[in-house]
Amino acid sequence: MATETIVLPGDQLDADTLPSHPTKLLKLGPGLVHIPPNSIIATVAGRLCTDKKKNAVWIEFNAGRYIPASDDLVIATIHHSSTDCYFASISDYASNASLPHLSFEGATRKSRPQLAPGALVYARVTLSNKHMDPEIECVSSTTGKSDGLGPLVGGMLFSISLAMSRRLMLSRPAEQGALVLLDELGTAGVAFEIAVGRNGKVWVDSKSIKTTLAIGKLIQRTDQEGWVVEKQRIMARKVAKET
Amino acid sequence: MPREVGPSLNERQFFQQALKEKIRIDGRNFEDFRQVQLEFGDEYGVSDVRLGKTRVLTKISAEVTTPYPDRPFDGLFTITTALSPMTLPSFSVSGPPSETEILLSRLLEKTIRRSGALDTESLCLLAGKSCFSVRADVHILSADGNLVDAACFGVVSALRHFRRNDISVSGEEVTVYTLREREGVPLSLLHYPLCVTFSFYTPAPGEEEMVLVDATQLEEHTRDGSCTIGMNKHGEVCQIAKLGGAPTDAVMLLQCANVALQHVLKLSKIMDEKLAEDTKKRDKGGMRAELSAENARITE
Questions:
Q1: Do the chains contact at A212 and B12, CB–CB below 8 Å?
Q2: Which residues of A touch B6 (CB under 8 A)?
Q3: Contacts of B14 in chain A (CB under 8 A)
């Protein structure tokens, strides 16, 4: 079992904690900054993670506020509409992001989705820098397909921490993020639809109010109470039995 | 930026649907309060109230000042509420106070000040010349609905906890002793008023109106009307505030008053228990312990 390295902001990383590769350059992920000529400083408090294959190093942390980054999938709430774009809110304390009217699958001037203020959309961040308001889109600009993006109808929205939304979006949540909750619910036979936004929001839809609430509560409790894999399995089976 | 971003349409519709099925989002019964936690600070007059995710910190302070010229026999008592952007981004520091702030301070004013909970005559030292000015500062640290009930509970428990400086008057001279010279004197409170807020929901014409007690942020945003009843544990109503909103049946309001009494009794009990606990913690152990010359030392 490898020991975990916890770093604090301002810590300089030793060379022996960093992976090395004969040909690839070292890639720095979130939370690290390079001060030339050869010091790497941590900027956030968290757990240091390394990947030998990709020769990458980054920090897993649980920050409070979501800062938009390009290609992130987020759940945005439409605030109002102007002549050519919607203004949607990604986070409460930042300015609204703009979502062009035609940025939906198969949208033309004559036929486009009419979204009322308060509607939810699942979108991807296209422009994000600290000097400008962010921009989002609901269709892939290269292929023209939505890939699951677009308005979310029905269901319920739950708030979770940023670290939890990152865990839910991992490609292999069971091994990388110690998260078996959703897989367990699926194998136990609960039918539900879910969309996870990197901005700390998860949208759940299911057949009945009770099921939707139960699933959302499970995700929130896994996050807040720090459930391990075994506990997640037990609680998921309990919920599946009741619905 | 001062922007009230309300809940999304999906959340509102889900909530309405759940109400129809008699389900509350956090699983409570319609007439249940969230769990109340009350803690006192090391200093006298500091109370920390937690009502679910709503958290209110109240601090009481007193100083000697001159009374108003038209009320020479009364002391001064003010309640200030501070809503900072730390709680919600829609609260702004500069600019005119938002509607939430105004309503909160007005309800606290009516329930606690106007009902005479604090006997201002007892704060008078020399008629027309000097009196105590008691000030309650309410800080909302975290807002998840029902700020009024939590703030009222905080102010009343902090007032009961507070000890003002002891004084002695000889002729025209007033001597104010520090808390180290003489033990602090509790404030003279005539009764302990608490608030209970009810939220009304009219789903559709022909359907029954629903009432929820102690609304969370989402429940507050989606309500059609609300009524705050301030009363003490003897069942005496200090104030009823139903500020606009959908019209409500009068019989419903009477029923709400009965439910409010049950909650006020429960809350008063919690307040009494916590105050007793705090007194016991501060109790040095009676006369023997006080007269003992032994120093506190760290025993290994």
A1: no
A2: 118
A3: 154-156, 209, 212
Q: What is the pLDDT of residues B215-270, one digit of tens each?
A: 998 999 899 999 999 999 999 999 999 988 888 888 989 999 999 999 999 999 99
Show Cβ contacts of residue A212 under 8 Å, excluding neighbours closer than 6 positions. A155, A156, A192, A204, A205, A206, B14
Rounded to a whole number, what is the distance in angstroms from the first to the last CA of chain A?
Answer: 38
Res B283 pLDDT > 90 = no
Q: Are strands B36-40 and B76-83 parallel, antiparallel or unpaired?
A: unpaired
Residue in A106, A89, A195 with CA at minimum distance from that of residue A148: A195
Q: What is the mean pLDDT of residues B78-98?
A: 79
- The alpha carbon dihedral of A60, A148, A199, A212 has a sign of negative
Q: Which residues fall within 8 angstroms of residue B236, CB to CB, at 6 or more apart?
A: B191
Q: Is B11 an interface residue toward A (CB < 8 Å)?
A: yes
Does any CB of chain A come closer than 8 Å to the CB of residue B14? yes
pLDDT digits (tens, 9 = 90+) for A19-56: 888 888 888 888 888 888 888 899 889 988 888 888 88
From the number of C-beta atoms within 10 Å of its C-beta (0-12, 13-18, 19+), residue B142 rates as middle
Contact A119 B8 (CB under 8 A): yes
Q: Verify whether the Cβ–Cβ distance A116 to B9 is below 8 Å.
A: yes
Select the residue of A79, A92, A156 nearest B11 (Cβ to Cβ).
A156
Task: Supply the DSSP string of chain B, one letter for each residue.
Answer: --------HHHHHHHHHHHHTT--TTS--TTPPPPEEEEE-SSTTEEEEEETTEEEEEEEEEEEEPPPTT-TT--EEEEEEEE-TTT-TT--SSSSPPHHHHHHHHHHIIIIIITT-B-GGGGEEETTTEEEEEEEEEEEEE-SS-HHHHHHHHHHHHHHH-EEPPEEEETTEEEE--TTTS--EE--BS---EEEEEEEE--STTSPPEEEES--HHHHHT-SEEEEEEE-TTS-EEEEE--SSS---HHHHHHHHHHHHHHHHHHHHHHHHHHHHHHHHH---HHHHHH--PPP----
Q: Which residues of chain B lie closer than 8 angstroms to A152, CB-CB?
A: 10
Listed by number, the residues of chain A in 93-152 with a beta carbon closer than 8 Å to a beta carbon of chain B are 93, 95, 116, 118-120, 152
What is the value of pTM for the model shown? 0.87
